[in-house]
Amino acid sequence: MTSPTSTSSAAGTAGPVDVRPPRRRREFWRSPTDQPRWARPSLLAVAALAALLYAGNITSSGFAPYYSVAARSMSQSWKAFLFTTVDPEATVTLDKIGGFLWPQALSARVFGFHDWALTLPQCLMGVVAVLVMYRVVRRWQGPAAGLLAAGLLTVTPVAASMFGHAMMDGSLTLCLVLAADQYQKAVDGARLRPLLLSALWVGLGFQTKMMEAWLVVPALCAGHLVAAPVRLRRRLGHLTAAGTVLFAVSLSWVALLTFTPADDRPYVEGSTGNSAFAMVFGYNGFNRLHAGLVDGASPVSGSGDGPQNGAGAAPTAPPASSRPGQPGDDRRKGGADGEDAGRTPSTTRPSGASPGGADRPGPGRAGDAPPGGGARQASAVEPESGALSRLKLLRNERFTPQIGWLYPLALLSLVLGLVRHRGAPRTDRARAGYLMWGVWLATTAGVLSAITITHTAYVASLAPPLAALSAAGTVALWRAHRSATGRRVWVLPAVIAVQVGWTVHLAADYTGFAPWLIPVVAAAALVAVLVLGLRPTPAPRRRLGARHITVAGLLAGCVAMFAAPTTWSLSVLDERHGGSAFDASAGPPPAGLPESQGGFTNGDVVGAGGDTSMTADQRKSLAYVKKHTSGAKYSLSAQTLADAGPYVHAKGLSPVLLTGGPDAESVSLAEYRDLVATGDLRFALVTGQGTKASRISAWVASACAAVDPADYGGRGEGGDGSPVLYRCAASDAARP
Q: Cβ neighbours of residue 516 under 8 Å, at least 6 residues apart?
């Protein structure tokens, strides 16, 4: 499709010749000669709006529990960075590939560890995604559609919140848009290199969100297989080469963990056998559709409809075992790798659960399976019942207002586009675009409908196809409307009416948030339908006036269709409606939840991998520990990541040693006592009592001295459930 420019058309119609001088490199605000003069300035305005929405609250964006602890560790240790571990000593990985944390960790190395430093890469990714979105749709449907698509992506509510916080879905969205950009170059000219680059971007997306990145693969394959202007054999050859690159990049981290000896790498959380493959494709993959499809993965709490959340429950570990030998030498078995004899604490791995212990819920975790694979415990963060529904993308009050405003417009645009180009040649660019975006939308929506979602940011992968199809359909309908006669004049007004009906249906549940919205939308829709449906005949003397009237009708229609998502997105400038680093959410929360939480209560994040803030007692105990740990390898130990989190975040503190739960210790008791004997560890936080206490915690409580809060000026404000600080001396290591 030829994009409109100010030059004469290919058909030879008369028109003004564009005599603009070539644009200089530094004049980035000027449009290239193949685009209208308004294109680049308008795009920069959209990018500025995106930057404002995404970075408006960057200094108060907050830390994401669990993931920010890992980002802190990865910013301190290159080994932790490579293996994406939760602790600087690279003992245990995240329960997923942590590639989304690489930009955050690098930013923290450069700017220091702050919430804004972790969020800054996400803000930049959001702006880049908007710019690339313009380029992709401009090549397909012209600059007007490209500009509208960029704008619609900007004001998609879930994107406005997501790119303003440090979370994995922003990285995934950028990778997928970049993959679509390179795919488009490949399918237009049947070139292999751009197709390989597209596969590369999908593979990098896999490093950020694993199998969710592969949801676009059917769309890219279908588009290239159908529309690339070369013979079928060559198309298949190109796809084979691209598939090789895709799998090589996607599985690179899994291969790194698989082929690195277990003694030289972290233990893989999310698996029961120290298997990266089981963690990625079982725990975070196929087992979320049906339990047990991949062996060796930790059990995922939830029904057959999918996981309870994006992080899952803590892994289930086999009972600890002792081996004969020297007294106290009760080292754990390291999965399939045999016994851990001779390991140092920094390389000893648990055989099951995370260092946070079996009682630690991760961010949004649905609850932790008890040791030994018994009955599941009650959920720590229960998802809404609607999160299990197959119709949650249409009816769930948490998900639909974040992504679903443009459903009717996008679907009608897709259907009308395919019908309009049904007789086009196989290589028709317009039809290929509708095919690719349509398959992307259908595949992603189908999978998200089949699994359980608790993190709203999951639905962000729907934003690019919805924005592209809505923009292309709006522009195509407008162009067809200008020359339509008879009943066809009412096609565009009818689409506007359907879209506005859906908008009013969704907004009716939130009249207290923006009471003016429904009246404005209804009035604008009425004007648009009447003006566009009853447009005046463009007689020669009235042609200019008639054109102005119809353009006014189009603008009114755009207001009616896009005012609601824009309102939701602009609300992120108010911190009350901006969501959190725990989850993306723009606009008012669902009914019954506090407005300040953006759809989540404080209970949702309690224990979610460790709160990042410190109480007054913790700050004082931190100063006390710093004062008495000079020369020690570790500042202190903790059984759970929830207890260690605030201390991992603290500045100027040597690494925190995570010891793990009662049946999943990351170091053996003998190794722990050796650390105490050599003076490499002097303090310990002990939380659990009875069956919740690990052997290490039980030994610390019996052999070491509890620090009186009065010694560091504390008040013991945490209550009975708070961890107790113990101080261990070298002589304590000899105690039984």
A: none
Q: How far apart are CA 492 and CA 314, in angstroms?
A: 52
Strand bridging mode 724-727 / 683-686: antiparallel
**Residues 66-91 pLDDT 10s:** 788 889 889 988 999 999 988 887 87
CA distance 216 to 205: 10
How far, in Å, CA of 184 to CA of 430, rounded?
11
Residues 125-173: tens digit of each pLDDT:
999 999 999 999 999 999 999 999 999 999 999 999 999 999 889 999 9
The DSSP bridge partners found for residue 657 are 637
CA-based R_g, the chain, Å: 28
Q: Quote the CA–CA distance of 481 and 128 in Å, as a whole number.
A: 33
What is the rounded (10 degree) CA torsion for 234, 239, 240, 246? 150
Tell me the pLDDT tens digit for each residue of 247-283.
999 999 999 999 999 888 888 888 888 889 999 998 8
Which amino acid is residue 648, in one-letter code? V
The set of residues, in sequence order, having a beta carbon less than 8 Å from that of 43 and lying 6+ positions away, is 131, 134, 146, 147, 150
Residues 6+ apart with CB under 8 A from 488: 480, 481
Q: Is 157 helix (H, G, I), strand (E, B) or coil?
A: helix
pTM of the model: 0.79
Would you call 713 helix, strand, or coil by DSSP? coil
